[in-house]
């Protein structure tokens, strides 16, 4: 994929976030190396009502909020 060939990890992560947002493919978030940016990516899908997204979050506070959102 076009994001994988980007050498800068920051730019590559941004590419995956943009691509996930455009294609609505949550799986692309898994390719993001920065845990913060990965959480940002997953957060886009929480608002759309995908409770399984909570498991992908690395920030404990965000994970708690996510789980409470779907409780």
Core attributes:
single chain, 71 residues, mainly alpha
Give a verbal description of the structure.
The protein is built from three helices and no strands. With 71 residues, the chain is mainly alpha-helical. The mean pLDDT is 92.
* Global mean pLDDT: 92
Cα(first) to Cα(last) distance is 36 Å
Order of helices and strands: HHH
What percent strand? Answer: under 5%
Number of helices: 3
Unreliable spans: none
| Total E-strand runs | 0
Structure class:
mainly alpha
- Biggest beta-sheet profile: none
Radius of gyration (CA) equals 12 Å
Bin the helical content. Answer: 40-55%
Based on CA inertia axes, which overall geometry fits?
elongated
Helix-strand blueprint:
Blueprint: H1 9-23, H2 35-46, H3 60-69
Helix pairs in contact: 1-2
What would a concise description of this structure say?
The protein has 71 residues and is mostly helical. 52% of the residues lie in helices and 0% in strands. It is built from three helices and no strands.
């Amino acid at each position: 994929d076009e994001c994988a060939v980007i050498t800068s990890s920051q730019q590559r992560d941004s590419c995956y976030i943009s691509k996930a947002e455009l294609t609505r493919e949550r799986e692309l978030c898994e390719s993001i190396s920065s845990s913060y940016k990965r959480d940002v990516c997953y957060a886009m899908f929480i608002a759309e009502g995908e409770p399984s997204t909570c498991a992908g979050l690395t920030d404990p506070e965000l994970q708690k909020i996510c789980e409470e959102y779907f409780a």
